[in-house]
UniProtKB/TrEMBL annotation:
The keyword tRNA-binding does not apply. It comes from the Bacteria. The keyword Metal-binding applies. It comes from Bradyrhizobium shewense. Belongs to the FAH family. This is Fumarylacetoacetate (FAA) hydrolase family protein. Keywords: Hydrolase, Metal-binding.
């Protein structure tokens, strides 16, 4: 991992927005909630013990702006100290900007990714079969379903046509049916942030990054801000069986969120988030380069609909949750042999970026090579209590 700088982190408008994050403080042997401002990084943990508590405020952006905090250093130095193999553990480093919230993800929310899931299912996890199946699926249902409203009469008619042709899929069910796919991505507190290694299961041979917008939602269902995310996916595991979804999605360091949480204010709103264009760049040590993008404006289900399908009278989240919105990115560029498509190799550098949210940068390693996750909810509560913050 190359040394990161502020340029590799901040949005294009710098610190104009209301930016929050988490930093590990060696002297406290624990995390701090921080405000990132033009004149430095400020510890606000005395006011907001967790990011979750900040998100519970009636107006989180205003509450953070009114909290002075204690300056702990320059953002440049903290960012540069974040990569695991370059870290001075006596100095602060960045963490993922999420703590007690449940980590949720919505799947199959874009037409193109829906088609790729159908292909994975039919290929049974074998990338060599994917190209022929891709042509067959496209012939049956087309490649532009962006105007098809999930749950509509038109969608239900298409469902019946596909059933009659023996081409229906469980992925089409959640892609164009009334109910969204929303699953738990990973355990609370297990996310990695920018500059850290992201993990792939060592037995996976067909996998890919998933560049996504991550919404931060309070326990009342209010969307308060956003960040970037990489919903790392194992196409071979999930393709073999949808019942392997948890193994395809939840492995050590396989949930990356960052670089910071941008709270909604006058400079960045939910409407701005709806129009985000998220770019993806993968650079391999073999010289391979993959570029892609995901436009939130092309999502099949509105973010509010996805949030409302996640929280309500039938499901509550007392500490709030974050929600990956899914991606339209579908990697079909061949990396090695023709027809084999894309899969990660060790030390790939993945950069997910959006002008309003900055850059999330991670190096890919197998999950057993990444830093073990050891600081869970119990450790956090004990640490905050020892510091007399709760």
């Amino acid at each position: 991992m190359t040394t990161l700088t502020v340029k590799d982190l901040l949005p294009e408008d710098g610190t104009r927005g209301t930016l929050a994050g988490r930093v590990w403080l060696p002297q406290a042997n624990g995390p701090a909630v921080v405000a990132v401002r033009g004149d430095g990084v400020f510890d606000v943990t005395a006011r907001f013990p967790t990011i979750s508590a900040l998100c519970e405020e009636d107006n989180p952006a205003k509450a953070l702006s009114l909290t002075k905090g204690e300056r702990i250093g320059d953002l440049d130095a903290i960012v540069a100290n974040t990569a695991p193999d370059q870290r001075d553990r006596q100095k602060p480093w960045l963490l993922a900007p999420v703590d007690l919230q449940t980590l949720k993800a919505a799947g199959v929310t874009f037409a193109i990714s829906m088609l790729e899931r159908v292909i994975e299912e039919r290929a049974k996890g074998n990338p060599a079969s994917a190209e022929a199946i891709r042509k067959e699926v496209t012939r049956l249902i087309g490649d532009d379903l962006s105007k098809l409203k999930p749950g509509s009469d038109q969608a239900m008619h298409l469902k019946q046509v596909l059933i009659d042709q023996n081409a229906w899929s469980q992925y089409l069910e959640v892609g164009i049916g009334p109910d969204a796919e929303v699953f738990t991505k990973a355990p609370t507190l297990s996310s990695v942030g920018t500059g850290m290694d992201a993990g792939l299961h060592p037995k996976s041979t067909w996998n890919n990054p998933e560049p996504e917008l991550v919404l931060f939602v309070s326990s009342r269902g209010k969307i308060v801000g956003g960040a970037l995310g990489n919903d790392v996916n194992l196409r071979d595991f999930e393709g073999r069986s949808a019942l392997l979804l948890s193994k395809a999605k939840d492995n050590n360091a396989s949930c990356a969120i960052g670089p910071l949480l941008r709270l909604f204010d006058d400079s960045f709103t939910l409407d701005d988030a709806r129009k985000l264009d998220i770019s993806l760049n993968v650079k391999g040590t073999d010289g391979f380069v993959l570029d892609g993008h995901s436009s939130i404006s092309k999502i099949s289900r509105d973010p509010i609909d996805l949030v409302e399908q996640t929280i309500g009278k039938v499901h509550q989240y007392p500490d709030g949750f974050v929600l990956f919105l899914g991606t339209m990115f579908a990697p079909v560029k061949d990396r090695d042999a023709p027809g084999q498509g894309f899969t990660h190799k060790r030390d790939d550098i993945v950069t997910i970026a959006a002008p309003q949210l900055g850059k999330l940068v991670n190096r890919m390693r197998t999950s057993d090579e990444c830093e073990p996750w050891t600081f869970g909810i119990g450790a956090l509560m004990k640490n905050l209590a020892q510091r007399k913050l709760i």
